[in-house]
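Lecture notes, unit on binding sites. The following record was shown on slide 14. It pairs a sequence with flavin-adenine dinucleotide.
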Amino acid sequence: MSIKIGEFIHPTSVEEALKYKGKPNVMFVAGSTAVGKVESINVKKMVNLLTLPLAFVEKEGNIIRIGATTPLDDVENSPAIKKYLPILIDAVRHVGAWGIKTMATMGGAVATAFPWSDVIPALLVLDASLTISRRGGRLTLSMEEFISKRISMLKSCIIEYIEIEIPQTTNWGFEKYAHSSFDIAMLNIAYLKTEDNLRVAVGARPGIAKRLKNFEKHRDILEGVKEAELKDDARASKWWREQVLSSRLKELVS
Ligand SMILES: Cc1cc2nc3c(=O)[nH]c(=O)nc-3n(C[C@H](O)[C@H](O)[C@H](O)COP(=O)(O)OP(=O)(O)OC[C@H]3O[C@@H](n4cnc5c(N)ncnc54)[C@H](O)[C@@H]3O)c2cc1C
């Protein structure tokens, strides 16, 4: 891998970092764990998002706010998240190796929205919203909206924080199916259940995680499996994914 970086920029405010958005030959990084996927780097400027004041977890009323540069390891060890959002703790606990969690950030996990992400399915069932900044100002949008517009948005935006309303239920679950505890998922499933509401998200389909909104409404197993649009990849077959999802959905509605 060849790496050529002209200058490192360490912005101390989101406004300062935004000045580099949309400029040619500029790369933005937070925990930098996704850099390993790049074959070579040849940029004039590399902007370090970790110097932004966005590493925090705070509670305001029934809302938990997680800053974008908060490392996954800090999320896992946050007393507020342990108490109010245990499903997120469970999802982060399933992320590969410990070393990765000390570097990878919440903002990085959301921005990359890798299909294998363990964080995205949990954020989807938690109905998380994102506050992002661009030169024209701030914007708040749902995780689902962000996922669909992500590629174009990231050209001009910086994710500032994630907000989650504390769910009024203890009936939730996160499951990751992988070849080993270090490996990425072959399938992951998150759910959150209240008396009259069920939310289910499926990741590593092998596409980006999605909510099964028709299934949530009609509770029809076949419809749910179809809605997940499962496919084959090197890690698992479509057939295997369908069997696992179908049996889990059955348990959820029984
Ligand atoms: C070996 C390995 C195993 C892994 N296993 C798992 C796993 O099992 N489960 C799992 O969920 N994850 C796993 N991950 C982590 C995941 O794949 C991503 O690498 C990680 O979430 C990216 O976070 P980061 O902070 O390092 O992002 P970076 O690598 O720093 O950045 C990635 C991209 O996101 C953009 N970005 C970052 N922060 C922001 C922001 N605030 N606003 C706008 N854009 C931003 C950057 O500009 C860049 O384009 C693994 C990673 C590695 C390397």
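Take-home: Residues 2-51 form one domain.
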